[in-house]
Amino acid sequence: MTVPxxxxxxxxxxxxxxxxxxxxxxxxxxxxxxxxxxxxxxRPLNSHAEADDILDVxxxxxxxxxxxxxxxxxxxxxGPFDYATGIGRFTDVGKFESLAGVDVGAxxxxxxxxxxxxxxxxxxxxxxxxxxxxxxxxxxHDRVVCLTLGTGVGSSFLSVGCPVHTGPLVPPSxxxxxxxxxxxxxxxxxxxxxxxxxxxxxxxxxxxxRLPDVHEIAVRANKGDAAAAEAFRYAFDAxxxxxxxxxxxxxxxxxxxxxxxxRSWDLxxxxxxxxxxxxxxxxxxxxxxxxxxxxxxxxxARWALGGPDAP
Length: 311
Fold this sequence. Notes:
The chain folds into two domains: 5-127 and 294-309, ATPase, nucleotide binding domain (Nucleotidyltransferase, domain 5), CATH 3.30.420.40; 140-288, Nucleotidyltransferase, domain 5 (2-Layer Sandwich), CATH 3.30.420.
């Protein structure tokens, strides 16, 4: 059910941003396109739990929101997921595998009782991109590529605010994680796993009892650890090289990056721009997200208000 025009103008839009370790629920003010601060709720989530346990945690976060909101929800979910039907397609991806074949939409509506009539699902990277297009670094760019740099690489190719998933101008499904670089899957190199593994090969970390995580590697790089700096440089230079041909095909005028690894902007930005330049796209600016935390929430709200046919 599409939200009536009168409701769109005044009633807060409920949204969920589901990630591998947390779920965030919020109400977004449709007049300002900003989350109402007192309503943002973040709860831990175990993506390896059983399906009912995962849905229970998501629903509990949703039910903690104040009442009086729209009955149409925007829900940002990682893939693989059937966004049109709300059914999980997680297989051999290392998270949410208990949701494979599960009607997530029906499960959440049942748990939310009378507080939900429709769930508008969208990819979490698309939600981030739509949010940044509405009031962030992607604003003003009719064709832009947005990246979420976290456990892996999420991406969204936006044309006038709408995600493009098909056609010759974008990678398969519009997602760069399916690309290859240096003869290997991109996420073998540009991911939490890839950066940690590369750092271990380059340094004495292989002998440490606990392999440092990416944020620790970033701290070491900023303190002069050459192996740590090289692990970042190699990963994001490779991302730039893999991305450049698609920026060219899509005729993008900017790249916008967010996610936990983008917090190490002083390491990510120079390597990514160097990789783009090496592949003949030195003219495209690489910009940090302006609303990295809010963008997935506001993007999901815009999706719920307009449905899949409008950003």
